[in-house]
Amino acid sequence: MTQRSRWIPIAVALAVSLTASAEPARVAQAPAATSYAFVHGRWFDGTSFVAETFYAVSGALTRRRPARIDRTIDLAGGFVVPPFADAHTHHFDGPATRDQVAMYLRDGVFYAKVQTDVRTSALRVASEVNRPDSVDVSYAHGALTSSYGHGVEIYEGIALGLYRYPMPDGAVAKIRASHRLENDAYYVIDTAADLAAKWPTIAAGRPDFLKLYLLTSEDHAARVARTDTVGDRGVDPKLVPEIVARGHAAGLRVSAHVDTVADYRVALAGGVDEMAHLPGYRFEPSEADERYLLSDADAAETARRGVWVIVAPVVSEGPPPDLQHRIDAVRAQNLGRLARAGAHLAFGSDWYGTTPVPAVRYLARTGVFSRVELLRIWCEQTPRTIFPTRKLGRLADGYEASFLVLAANPLDDFDAVTRIRLRFKQGQLLTVAAK
Q: Of 59, 64, 129, 295, which sits 20 to 30 A from 395 (CA to CA)?
């Protein structure tokens, strides 16, 4: 998120209620230890769909028929895929959480990674998530930034009712003076001493992972010197290795917001585990494409280090066609290099009020990925960067019994991902309210 106009719709969405039903998912009435048999389904094996019979026993999938079957469900030739996931969102930390849960489950998105949230607000709605009839969510619980850095303009701006484009007269000064959500939605880290002093508070917040902001690192010194802007900078690039070291020592993976290729290289050299963006997801018409283009060496190093890269195209803003063409071309080159190098890719939305479905359908239309690659990234790989220790993202023996049944083959028509017949999560059948 940056100060530019591309982020204003987040505040607009925060200010209005969602259209999703407030009804949570209902678990079909059955004993907790119900054993299911699923027959006449075609199951995704990572390459194609295979006709098989699977069973769900004690919340796990198996091909071995159990001694007792309590219920047999005929999938009627449906196409079975692992649930979808969103590796970059900012939902699930406020009064709209129940609506967001309904929206995500309806779209088949069972896993979400909140790449910055208001921690106190997220704790108030903690009972709404991370349960079998809801979305499983991983939280950053605030992000590390600099004084007047990225994140401040959004969270303080929203709190003051000033985050819109163009900003009203005097808004920058008022936002810079506000500290309502400091040490809650963001932490100001300007020096190594700041990091040492605030680390106990950050760790006490018990984040699921650590998030830091880098923003145009090549101009960091010049931007820090300005007093007439807010949200146009991130942490000092020199602090990244120490931030990562502290995170890793606490058992936390580290995710970095990156805009430019300079940010990406700082994060990569600093040892982060995940890029919350792919460089070039948005840029201004006056900027050179080269500022956002990864090299083959960048891609190779990303793969060597096992760093994840989240593709969150933020497609709903609709830039002018000529600019969109440039953005698509930069994205295609970056993704091509990363894919050829064997880097880990994941999908995210980063658009308040939507699931990643519009973003992934958009990527399908660009032709950057084949349909089978889209499914593998979305269903198999993305859950792994959200919950790396869980057995998710595969329809295989011993994996969590969570899946979707589609009415048509997404390898023939990718829009079939929107035609969900059945949702099954952690060994339980879900009933989700329609729109």
A: 129
Is it the case that residue 12 has pLDDT exceeding 50? Answer: no
Contact between 116 and 140 (Cβ < 8 Å): yes
DSSP assigned state of 377: I
Pairs from 161-165 (Cβ < 8 Å, separation ≥ 24): 163/8, 163/11, 164/8, 164/11, 164/12, 165/5, 165/8
Q: Is the dihedral of CA 158, 350, 233, 214 positive or negative?
A: positive
CA–CA separation, 92 and 191 (whole Å):
31
Nearest-angstrom CA–CA distance, 310 and 326: 20
pLDDT, residue 22, reads 44
Q: Give Cα separations from 140 to 26, 243, 304, 305 (angstroms).
A: 28, 14, 25, 22
With 0-12 CB in 10 A as exposed, 13-18 as middle and 19+ as buried, what is 202? buried
Three-state DSSP at 341 gives helix
Helices (H) and strands (E) in the chain, counts: 14, 19
Tokens representing residue 364 in the block: 């399908």
- Lowest-pLDDT choice from 12-21, 48-57, 276-285, 405-414: 12-21
Question: 274-275 and 254-257: which strand pairing?
Answer: parallel
- Considering Cα of 157, then 160, then 161, then 162, what sign does the dihedral take? negative
Predicted confidence (pLDDT) at residue 170 exceeds the cutoff of 80: yes
Predicted confidence (pLDDT) per residue in 57-86, tens digit: 999 999 999 999 999 999 999 999 999 999
**Please, are residues 360 and 316 in contact by the beta-carbon 8 Å criterion?**
no
Name the residue among 39, 48, 82 with its Cα closest to residue 412: 48
Q: Is 5-19+84-390 in CATH node 3.40.190.10?
A: no
Contact assessment for residue 299 and residue 335, using Cβ atoms and an 8 Å cutoff: no
* Cβ atoms of 132 and 99 closer than 8 Å: no
Contacts of 419 (CB under 8 A, 6+ apart): 406, 407, 408
d(C-alpha 214, C-alpha 149), whole Å: 9
Domain edges within the chain:
5-19+84-390
Helix (H, G, I), strand (E, B) or coil at 37: strand
Per-residue pLDDT of 110-145, as tens digits, reads 999 999 999 999 999 999 999 999 999 999 999 999
